[in-house]
Amino acid sequence: MDEETRQLYELKAGVLQAVAHPLRLAILDVLREGERCVCDIAEAVGAKRPNVSRHLALMLSAGILASRKAGLQVFYSLKTPCILESLKCVARVLRQQRDHTEALLRNL
After folding, report:
1. Residue 21 within a domain
2. Which pTM value belongs to this model?
3. pLDDT in tens, 26-57
4. Cα–Cα dist 29/80, whole Å
5. Which residues lie across from 9 on neighbouring strands?
């Protein structure tokens, strides 16, 4: 593999790592409905604001989220809503795993 291809894979892995946490997945689900302030996101996911802010900053730096400041509040939105499509794919994988496991259990 050449250097340029390796770098591309590293960049892709960075984006995937930026969403690879249960709280970050929950945040993406909240933002699916549109722009929200940190306080609303924290309440919706049942986490403390400082913790949510750290996760938001990570996804912001990965290019997944956009932010804007209005007074003292910071609002976040999905910069790349297509990330939700990849999460639908993950759900399909989980359903296939469940179906396979159920089929195996029926044969016991």
Report:
1. yes
2. 0.87
3. 999 999 999 999 999 999 999 999 999 999 99
4. 13
5. none
